[in-house]
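Q: What would this complex look like in 3D?
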Amino acid sequence: AQTVTQSQPEMSVQEAETVTLSCTYDTSESDYYLFWYKQPPSRQMILVIRQEAYKQQNATENRFSVNFQKAAKSFSLKISDSQLGDAAMYFCAYRTNRDDKIIFGKGTRLHILP
Amino acid sequence: DTAVSQTPKYLVTQMGNDKSIKCEQNLGHDTMYWYKQDSKKFLKIMFSYNNKELIINETVPNRFSPKSPDKAHLNLHINSLELGDSAVYFCASSLRQSREAFFGQGTRLTVV
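A: Here is my prediction, written as C-alpha coordinates for the whole assembly.
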Protein backbone atom coordinates (compact mmCIF):
# COMPACT_ATOMS: atom_id res chain seq x y z
CA ALA A 1 0.00 0.00 0.00
CA GLN A 2 1.16 3.50 -0.72
CA THR A 3 1.84 5.59 2.34
CA VAL A 4 3.24 9.02 3.09
CA THR A 5 5.00 9.68 6.39
CA GLN A 6 5.78 13.03 7.94
CA SER A 7 7.73 12.35 11.10
CA GLN A 8 7.69 15.91 12.47
CA PRO A 9 4.27 16.86 13.88
CA GLU A 10 5.49 20.37 14.72
CA MET A 11 8.48 22.55 13.95
CA SER A 12 9.55 26.08 14.76
CA VAL A 13 11.93 28.38 12.95
CA GLN A 14 13.14 31.90 13.51
CA GLU A 15 11.98 34.45 10.98
CA ALA A 16 14.48 34.81 8.09
CA GLU A 17 16.05 31.44 8.88
CA THR A 18 15.86 28.24 6.85
CA VAL A 19 13.84 25.18 7.79
CA THR A 20 13.49 21.73 6.29
CA LEU A 21 10.38 19.59 6.59
CA SER A 22 10.78 15.84 6.12
CA CYS A 23 8.67 13.42 4.15
CA THR A 24 9.12 9.79 3.18
CA TYR A 25 6.83 7.64 1.12
CA ASP A 26 6.38 4.03 0.26
CA THR A 27 5.49 2.84 -3.21
CA SER A 28 6.29 0.15 -5.73
CA GLU A 29 5.47 2.46 -8.62
CA SER A 30 8.14 4.09 -10.74
CA ASP A 31 6.05 6.88 -12.22
CA TYR A 32 4.41 9.26 -9.76
CA TYR A 33 4.13 12.81 -8.53
CA LEU A 34 4.96 14.35 -5.19
CA PHE A 35 3.57 17.56 -3.74
CA TRP A 36 3.79 19.86 -0.80
CA TYR A 37 0.58 21.63 0.14
CA LYS A 38 0.26 24.44 2.65
CA GLN A 39 -2.79 24.94 4.82
CA PRO A 40 -2.78 28.28 6.68
CA PRO A 41 -5.34 29.09 9.39
CA SER A 42 -7.74 30.18 6.62
CA ARG A 43 -8.13 26.42 5.91
CA GLN A 44 -7.45 26.80 2.19
CA MET A 45 -5.22 24.06 0.71
CA ILE A 46 -2.53 25.73 -1.38
CA LEU A 47 -0.09 23.91 -3.63
CA VAL A 48 3.45 24.96 -2.75
CA ILE A 49 5.55 22.81 -5.04
CA ARG A 50 5.40 19.63 -7.12
CA GLN A 51 7.94 17.13 -8.34
CA GLU A 52 7.65 14.56 -11.11
CA ALA A 53 9.42 11.34 -10.18
CA TYR A 54 11.01 10.99 -13.61
CA LYS A 55 12.77 14.33 -13.23
CA GLN A 56 16.12 14.18 -11.48
CA GLN A 57 16.31 17.91 -10.99
CA ASN A 58 14.86 19.15 -7.71
CA ALA A 59 11.90 21.51 -8.08
CA THR A 60 12.15 25.08 -6.81
CA GLU A 61 9.57 27.83 -6.41
CA ASN A 62 11.08 31.05 -5.14
CA ARG A 63 11.97 30.46 -1.46
CA PHE A 64 10.70 26.86 -1.56
CA SER A 65 12.76 23.96 -2.82
CA VAL A 66 12.73 20.22 -2.44
CA ASN A 67 15.33 17.54 -1.96
CA PHE A 68 13.99 14.55 -3.89
CA GLN A 69 15.84 11.30 -3.27
CA LYS A 70 14.03 8.69 -5.35
CA ALA A 71 16.02 5.68 -4.21
CA ALA A 72 15.53 6.61 -0.58
CA LYS A 73 11.87 7.57 -1.22
CA SER A 74 12.44 10.87 0.48
CA PHE A 75 10.96 14.25 -0.42
CA SER A 76 11.87 17.08 1.93
CA LEU A 77 10.80 20.70 1.66
CA LYS A 78 13.22 23.53 2.36
CA ILE A 79 11.89 26.99 3.12
CA SER A 80 14.50 29.73 2.92
CA ASP A 81 14.22 33.17 4.48
CA SER A 82 11.18 32.11 6.50
CA GLN A 83 8.42 34.68 6.76
CA LEU A 84 5.56 35.05 9.23
CA GLY A 85 3.14 34.20 6.44
CA ASP A 86 4.76 30.77 6.10
CA ALA A 87 3.20 29.67 9.37
CA ALA A 88 0.82 26.86 8.46
CA MET A 89 0.28 23.10 8.30
CA TYR A 90 2.35 21.57 5.55
CA PHE A 91 1.24 18.35 3.92
CA CYS A 92 3.37 16.08 1.81
CA ALA A 93 1.34 14.22 -0.82
CA TYR A 94 1.78 11.52 -3.43
CA ARG A 95 -0.04 10.48 -6.58
CA THR A 96 0.66 7.78 -9.16
CA ASN A 97 -0.05 7.98 -12.83
CA ARG A 98 -2.27 4.90 -12.57
CA ASP A 99 -4.49 6.15 -9.79
CA ASP A 100 -6.83 9.06 -9.28
CA LYS A 101 -6.23 9.61 -5.60
CA ILE A 102 -3.74 11.83 -3.89
CA ILE A 103 -2.48 10.40 -0.60
CA PHE A 104 -1.52 12.83 2.12
CA GLY A 105 0.83 12.62 5.07
CA LYS A 106 -0.40 13.65 8.51
CA GLY A 107 1.10 17.10 8.22
CA THR A 108 3.72 19.22 9.97
CA ARG A 109 2.65 22.36 11.77
CA LEU A 110 5.23 25.06 11.16
CA HIS A 111 5.58 27.99 13.57
CA ILE A 112 7.53 31.09 12.61
CA LEU A 113 9.12 32.90 15.55
CA PRO A 114 9.48 36.68 15.15
CA ASP B 1 -13.00 33.73 -10.67
CA THR B 2 -12.93 31.09 -7.93
CA ALA B 3 -11.52 27.89 -9.37
CA VAL B 4 -13.15 25.38 -7.00
CA SER B 5 -16.01 26.65 -4.89
CA GLN B 6 -17.95 24.88 -2.17
CA THR B 7 -21.10 25.91 -0.41
CA PRO B 8 -21.73 26.35 2.39
CA LYS B 9 -18.50 27.24 4.18
CA TYR B 10 -19.99 26.38 7.54
CA LEU B 11 -22.78 23.99 8.40
CA VAL B 12 -24.15 23.34 11.88
CA THR B 13 -26.88 20.76 12.17
CA GLN B 14 -28.46 18.31 14.56
CA MET B 15 -27.89 14.60 14.69
CA GLY B 16 -30.19 12.67 12.41
CA ASN B 17 -30.61 15.45 9.87
CA ASP B 18 -29.80 15.19 6.17
CA LYS B 19 -27.56 17.80 4.57
CA SER B 20 -25.83 18.53 1.29
CA ILE B 21 -22.61 20.26 0.32
CA LYS B 22 -22.23 21.59 -3.19
CA CYS B 23 -19.06 21.90 -5.24
CA GLU B 24 -18.36 23.48 -8.59
CA GLN B 25 -15.14 23.90 -10.55
CA ASN B 26 -14.53 26.16 -13.53
CA LEU B 27 -11.11 24.80 -14.46
CA GLY B 28 -12.28 22.40 -17.13
CA HIS B 29 -11.02 19.45 -15.06
CA ASP B 30 -12.41 15.98 -15.61
CA THR B 31 -11.83 14.54 -12.14
CA MET B 32 -13.36 15.69 -8.87
CA TYR B 33 -12.90 14.51 -5.31
CA TRP B 34 -14.26 14.70 -1.83
CA TYR B 35 -11.77 14.61 1.02
CA LYS B 36 -12.51 14.58 4.75
CA GLN B 37 -10.20 16.34 7.20
CA ASP B 38 -10.66 15.22 10.80
CA SER B 39 -9.93 17.10 13.99
CA LYS B 40 -6.28 15.99 13.86
CA LYS B 41 -5.98 17.52 10.37
CA PHE B 42 -5.65 14.14 8.67
CA LEU B 43 -6.87 14.31 5.06
CA LYS B 44 -8.49 11.20 3.71
CA ILE B 45 -10.04 10.69 0.31
CA MET B 46 -13.70 9.72 0.29
CA PHE B 47 -14.72 9.70 -3.36
CA SER B 48 -13.33 10.39 -6.80
CA TYR B 49 -15.33 10.98 -9.95
CA ASN B 50 -14.03 11.07 -13.50
CA ASN B 51 -16.34 12.43 -16.19
CA LYS B 52 -19.32 11.91 -13.88
CA GLU B 53 -18.40 8.28 -13.15
CA LEU B 54 -17.51 7.07 -9.68
CA ILE B 55 -13.90 5.90 -9.68
CA ILE B 56 -12.98 5.70 -6.01
CA ASN B 57 -15.15 4.96 -3.01
CA GLU B 58 -12.94 4.60 0.03
CA THR B 59 -15.08 2.56 2.42
CA VAL B 60 -17.30 5.47 3.21
CA PRO B 61 -20.61 4.71 5.00
CA ASN B 62 -23.65 4.45 2.75
CA ARG B 63 -25.06 7.54 4.43
CA PHE B 64 -22.68 9.52 2.23
CA SER B 65 -23.81 9.76 -1.36
CA PRO B 66 -21.95 11.82 -3.93
CA LYS B 67 -23.70 13.00 -7.05
CA SER B 68 -22.12 14.41 -10.18
CA PRO B 69 -24.69 15.98 -12.50
CA ASP B 70 -21.92 17.06 -14.89
CA LYS B 71 -18.14 17.26 -15.04
CA ALA B 72 -18.07 20.63 -13.31
CA HIS B 73 -20.14 19.68 -10.28
CA LEU B 74 -19.81 17.15 -7.50
CA ASN B 75 -22.21 17.35 -4.60
CA LEU B 76 -22.12 15.42 -1.35
CA HIS B 77 -25.30 14.39 0.40
CA ILE B 78 -25.17 13.02 3.91
CA ASN B 79 -28.12 11.22 5.49
CA SER B 80 -28.79 10.68 9.18
CA LEU B 81 -25.88 12.78 10.36
CA GLU B 82 -23.86 11.50 13.32
CA LEU B 83 -21.59 13.29 15.76
CA GLY B 84 -18.59 11.57 14.18
CA ASP B 85 -19.34 13.20 10.85
CA SER B 86 -18.15 16.52 12.24
CA ALA B 87 -15.13 17.48 10.15
CA VAL B 88 -13.99 19.73 7.35
CA TYR B 89 -14.97 18.42 3.93
CA PHE B 90 -12.92 19.48 0.94
CA CYS B 91 -13.86 19.29 -2.67
CA ALA B 92 -11.02 19.17 -5.19
CA SER B 93 -10.51 18.78 -8.90
CA SER B 94 -7.76 17.83 -11.32
CA LEU B 95 -7.12 16.60 -14.80
CA ARG B 96 -7.00 12.81 -14.59
CA GLN B 97 -3.49 11.45 -14.29
CA SER B 98 -2.16 14.93 -14.51
CA ARG B 99 -0.43 16.17 -11.43
CA GLU B 100 -1.93 18.26 -8.69
CA ALA B 101 -5.44 18.78 -7.41
CA PHE B 102 -6.95 22.17 -6.71
CA PHE B 103 -9.00 22.46 -3.57
CA GLY B 104 -12.08 24.36 -2.54
CA GLN B 105 -12.07 26.35 0.67
CA GLY B 106 -13.63 23.53 2.66
CA THR B 107 -16.91 23.14 4.49
CA ARG B 108 -16.76 22.86 8.26
CA LEU B 109 -19.57 20.54 9.29
CA THR B 110 -20.52 20.48 12.94
CA VAL B 111 -23.09 17.95 14.12
CA VAL B 112 -24.62 18.69 17.52
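A: To summarize the key features: The radius of gyration of chain A is 14 Å. Chain A touches chain B at residues 33, 35, 37, 39, 42-45, 47, 50, 52, 89, 91, 95, 97-98, 100-104, 106-107 (CB under 8 Å).
Q: Very helpful, thank you.
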